[in-house]
Amino acid sequence: MAEVFHLKTPLLESINMSKRVGTTVYLKMENAQPSGSFKIRGIGHLCQQLARHSKGVICSSGGNAGMAAAYAAQKMGVPATIIVPSSTPPLVVQRLHDQGATVRIVGKVWDDANTEALKLAETEGLTYVAPFDHPLLWEGHASMIAEVTASLGPSVKPGAVVVSVGGGGLLCGVIQGLKDVGWTDVPIVAMETVGAHCFNAAIKAGKLVTLDDITSEAKCLGAKTACKQAFDYSQSSELTIISELVTDQQALHAIQTFLDEERVLVEMACGAALAAVYSGIIVRLQNEGRLPALMGPLLMIVCGGSTINMEQLTNLKHKLQS
Ligand code: PLV
Question: Part of which pathway (predicted)?
Fold first, then answer.
């Protein structure tokens, strides 16, 4: 069997979040993965399948997909080129270099970087590593739900799952994982920030839409268009997907509260999911009857992220809270 690059992550009960929601909240600590986020599950799997004999991988990324691709490539002894937009903080560019990758900064947002990555894959004969839109990624991400079932034991089923949505790869992987274990009746709360809300916009329009620009500071949620599979799932009568938005201020407040209460620093993309609890969205959905009032434990996917440190947190505070 091929080597697996991701780790089994802890499932922690959060006393503070549980108090807020009135039901047990479990945190799936994907921040603890090598490369700093859940992305290594899918990207590690994709690289195992597609890049074993590659002359090099190329990945377009807001940061975390690139970190995962660089990590997997280094393990496999394959060169990695990561194309990031100028909105990716310098600290991530440094982390990518430290992971042995060649880094190029192209364009303003992820979509610009992706156009360049697709072009280079073609002209240089490199293996393209998609950050969110590929069935192998979803298959890899699905392993996190299998781990949750093992951690919870046979008699416990989540009342709902909370995920962040960028291009929708995490969402597709979580749904695949829920399908694999027969939990398709578990509602999913899909969180985005205003200004990086391509999935919410698609649901409202009834079709995929492309945002004009990414104006949110949650740059790793900053795909202008969601992937088709995520949209198709949103239209499926078999699934309950509730799409909700928070402001950048709410996402920032969430990462600060999480740091205070759980002693873990995550980036804005993850803050969007955490804000579902800290900004009272779960309780509102219960009051509106969109989630059951008495529900089983809430499963929070703590997707993690490397685009944060104390300096970046201070910058965000100045930008968003002044
Ligand atoms: N980030 C991608 C896409 O960016 C990237 O290149 O890293 N949480 C974190 C910490 C993430 O980094 C991402 C995606 C998400 C959530 C959302 O995952 P997705 O894109 O699969 O919905 C533009």
Answer: Carbohydrate biosynthesis; gluconeogenesis
pLDDT value at 2 more than 80: no
Alpha carbon distance, N-terminus to C-terminus of the chain:
53
CA distances from 1 to 132, 219, 253 (A): 25, 36, 43
Q: Do domains 11-38+134-321 and 40-128 have the same CATH topology?
A: yes
Q: Is the CB of residue 242 less than 8 Å from the CB of residue 290?
A: yes
Closest Cα to atom 13, ligand 1: which residue? 220
pLDDT, mean of residues 123-128: 98
Q: Is the CB of 61 under 6 A from ligand 1?
A: yes
For atom 6 of ligand 1, the residue with the nearest CA is: 61
Residue 226 Cβ < 6 Å to ligand 1: no
* Assigned CATH for 11-38+134-321: 3.40.50.1100
- 40-128 placed in CATH 3.40.50.1100: yes
Q: Give dist(CA 278, CA 99) in Å, integer.
A: 34
Please report, for the chain, the start and end positions of each structural domain, with discontinuous segments joined by +: 11-38+134-321, 40-128
Gap from CA of 293 to ligand 1 centroid (Å): 30
Minimum CA distance residue for ligand 1 atom 1: 220
What is the position in ligand 1's atom list of the atom closest to the CA of 163?
Answer: 16
